[in-house]
């Protein structure tokens, strides 16, 4: 008897999300596990957004900082460089300078930065706060208004601030990232709470919280995998938004991307190590179900694109 | 089904204060209420009780048995406090129950106490190395506890195997594994092994309004699996028994008249059986 490869069929489907106003990007929409296109339909490639910040990346390790030397002192130039020179399909602007422990920039400053960046690029924009619960609820409301009509992704709404942020994203017609801290049940709960406000579940992006290889990646992997299984095998609509892996910020703060070759010669080339670390972390999270990645190093992003080419 | 009244626990503020001030009033009031509500035994949970545990357990046992003709479940990790409690326990109302031994070598001496005082004992199927992964691992640990009990001279009919109920909010897949373990435990001896659960841990960490719902429906499912005893709220379990027919009907795939009740039961059973992912608002979906 001829061998017949076993095929799974799934009852659910991931929501398809389109972002951007001029040029758009689309992700999600699959009714199969990651890259299982042989079992069903996976219409879109995962999208990689390049991370830029509202303040110069003083705290980034040299390997990734020097890539943006000369452009990173201004978010507009930086974003344009990512779009025009690096061919980024999307930009993720992180307003880290609004954090009270950093430059403590005001919501109005943040709104101006967002407007300036939006005026300079035509690819979709993801707008991220500084991950400070109180400040984000002011900043993300202000930037949502500033970006009205641009079909951006606003993030991240968390248990402690989702009401104001979701209301602002809804009023200004944006997509929204809902982030919970590595707990599938809380992730589902947050998606429920946001949709109970009247926010359309098909405009959500789930962030189960990222972690770098060697620093808890397996937890993120497992939560993402279970979210995707709930979406596909249990047809759980609360778990059907596409997922975000916010890779760069987790990878470029760990020892392996910073320790010098003089101190640890056995670890090999520092530059290669950092790039590989980001690429491997991102690739793993694609395998567990992420459809949207935020990354920092262009070489790592290119390696991941190649990885996607081979798997799609 | 034996209900072991759970309310006399050091975790509850009112009980704790009464324990520390040796105020018999609240203890006896709660014990009496649980007896009237259908408890066949009263749990006396004094915690680790490192200081003065012996005297406290004796006071608890005698305080309870002064007003309630029931045996006591002596619930502490302090072996000396257990022994002190067993010495004053009035076996006229039934054999006491020790809570608990396990597969952790530190808890082996508990079996000596059970043999010496002719007490029943709960065998919690956990080892030293963390939580059991599934029903099979629970059964394997149960077998070790049973072998050890025989070694120590504790008859198997005096053992209650406890598969350890975990919180559904964080360990949803264990809800069904515990039910499977209850079935497996019974097959490990003839006559079947007795089983017990700390029921309300299933809903620990869940919103307050959800707790009785999860407790009740989980109780019925465990009961259908052959559970012998539950450390639980007797009042709540009396409510569960009233709803048992409805729950059994839904489990059998029948439709019941009350649509709202039908939805509540269906959604809760789906969560317990792992057919839908738990979230605090699952009933609203």
Topology of helices and strands:
The complex is a heterodimer of chains A (312) and B (285).
Chain A lengths: L15 E4 L5 E4 L18 E7 L8 H4 L9 H10 L5 E5 L12 H14 L4 E4 L4 H14 L6 E5 L4 H10 L3 E5 L4 H13 L7 E4 L9 H17 L9 E3 L1 H5 L18 H19 L1 E6 L2 H14 L1
Parallel strand pairs in A: 3-4, 3-10, 4-5, 5-6, 6-7, 7-8, 9-10
Antiparallel strand pairs in A: 1-2
Helix pairs in contact in A: 2-3, 3-4, 4-5, 7-9, 9-10
Chain B lengths: L1 E4 L7 H9 L2 H13 L4 E7 L5 H15 L4 E5 L2 H10 L8 E6 L6 H8 L3 E5 L10 H18 L6 E4 L10 H14 L7 E5 L12 H14 L4 E4 L1 H18 L7 H14 L13
Parallel strand pairs in B: 1-2, 1-8, 2-3, 3-4, 4-5, 5-6, 6-7, 7-8
Helix pairs in contact in B: 1-2, 2-3, 3-4, 6-7, 8-9, 8-10, 9-10
Q: Would you give an account of this structure?
A:
- The complex is a heterodimer of chains A (312) and B (285).
- The mean pLDDT of chain A is 97.
- Chain A has an 8-stranded parallel sheet. Chain A has a two-stranded antiparallel ribbon with strand order 1-2.
- In chain A, helix 2 packs parallel to helix 3, helix 3 (107-120) crosses helix 4 (133-146) and helix 7 runs parallel beside helix 9.
- The longest helix of chain A is centred in the last third of the chain and has 19 residues, at 270-288.
- Chain A has one domain: Alpha-Beta Barrel (TIM Barrel), CATH 3.20.20.
- Chain A has 10 helices and 10 strands.
- Chain A has helices at residues 62-65, 75-84, 107-120, 133-146, 162-171, 184-196, 217-233, 247-251, 270-288, 298-311, and strands spanning 16-19, 25-28, 47-53, 90-94, 125-128, 153-157, 175-179, 204-207, 243-245, 290-295.
- With 312 residues, chain A is an alpha/beta fold.
- Chain B is of the alpha/beta class.
- In chain B, strand 2 (41-47), helix 3 (53-67) and strand 3 form a beta-alpha-beta unit.
- In chain B, helix 9 (234-251) crosses helix 10 (259-272).
- The interface between A and B is medium-sized, with 15 and 12 residues.
